[in-house]
Design a protein that fits this description.
With 89 residues, this protein is mostly helical. The chain has 3 helices and no strands. The radius of gyration is 13 Å and the shape is globular.
Length: 89
């Protein structure tokens, strides 16, 4: 998949993931896009693991099922990012 399709998929998946995930997440459009692209890889890899039984680094495609998988991966990426950046006072 070319880079423009990855950017579009990242924007869509990141925006939907941020809208679904409860609470406030910081970051602008670049953070949304990066979390969406990372989410596409997480979701695509988990989907590949479930389908084939072997873990491989693949990204979701720019299709309706691909966007759904990328949104799920984006939600996982937002959760993990929140765990890494959580501040304790």
């Amino acid at each position: 998949m070319n880079i423009i399709a990855w950017i579009v998929l990242g924007l869509i998946a990141g925006a939907i993931g941020k809208a679904i995930y409860p609470g406030h997440q910081g970051g602008g459009i670049l953070a949304t896009m990066l979390l969406g692209i990372v989410g596409a890889f997480i979701g695509g890899s988990l989907f590949s693991l479930i389908q084939t039984g072997s873990l491989s680094l693949v990204g979701a495609s720019l299709s309706i099922p691909g966007v759904i998988v990328a949104v799920i991966g984006s939600i996982i990426a937002i959760f993990l990012w929140g765990l890494l950046t959580r501040r304790t006072v």
